[in-house]
Amino acid sequence: MQAIDTLTPCPCGNMAGYTHCCGPLHEGAVAQTAESLMRSRYSAYVLKREDYLLATWHSSNRPASLKLATQQPAPTWLGLDVKHHEEDGEHATVEFVARLRYGGGKAQRMHEISRFVREQGRWYYLDGRFPEG
Ligand SMILES: [Zn+2]
Question: 111: CA distance to ligand 1 center in Å?
Answer without folding.
Answer: 19
